Amino acid sequence: MPPAPRRTHHAAPPREDVLAAAMATIAARGLDGLTMAGLGREVGMSSGHLLYYFRTKDELLLRTLEWSEDRLGAERRALLTEPGTARERLDAYIGLYLPAGHRDPHWTLWLEVWGRSQNADDDARARQAAIEGAWHRDLVALLAEGVSRGEFRAVDADRFATRLRALLDGFSVHVTVGIPGTGREQVLVQAAEFLDEALKKAAD
């Protein structure tokens, strides 16, 4: 009797590959197109295998968001250390913060995670807060630098950052869902006008 054929075990792809595939699926087909079964086919894993690693779709979405934020965080840190004025770097920060356009996959994912956070556990909420905190701390530092260098009028950097991010979040929702009159370029202009008005020194 011939020996039984040997089973071939396929190693699971690196977790980063799975998260990249999830984001690519969101970009191509939206959140409705992201299913455990479909993602499994993309990366050569069963949906059960994916659930073993991520437990729930909520966890998959949050992990994908964290992976995307890690990449954006690297870009943000790089632009904040570039030479130039604080205002030039603030404009660059805002450009990175805002969606690239209608159905931007990162912001589409953010909105979904936000929506699910009402029923999230403490760990998930803490991880979302960590993402928000990183953006906030960098903005506070940038505003404080602009004030100390005399580029901006004296403002409470933490309070101003909170208000500015609320403004940017609102605009970002409009851009992502495609509300007429609030495309990315229009929002960039409005954000620049707001900064001109809010940070302009009286002596100017």
From TrEMBL:
Residues 35-54 bind DNA. PROSITE patterns: HTH_TETR_2 (PS50977). Residues 12-72 form the HTH tetR-type domain. Pfam families: TetR_C_6, TetR_N. InterPro entries: BetI_C, Homeodomain-like_sf, HTH-type_TetR-like_transc_reg, HTH_TetR, Tet_transcr_reg_TetR-rel_C_sf. Keywords: DNA-binding, Repressor, Transcription, Transcription regulation. The keyword Transcription regulation applies. PANTHER family: HTH-TYPE TRANSCRIPTIONAL REGULATOR RUTR (PTHR30055), HTH-TYPE TRANSCRIPTIONAL REPRESSOR BDCR (PTHR30055:SF200). This is TetR family transcriptional regulator.
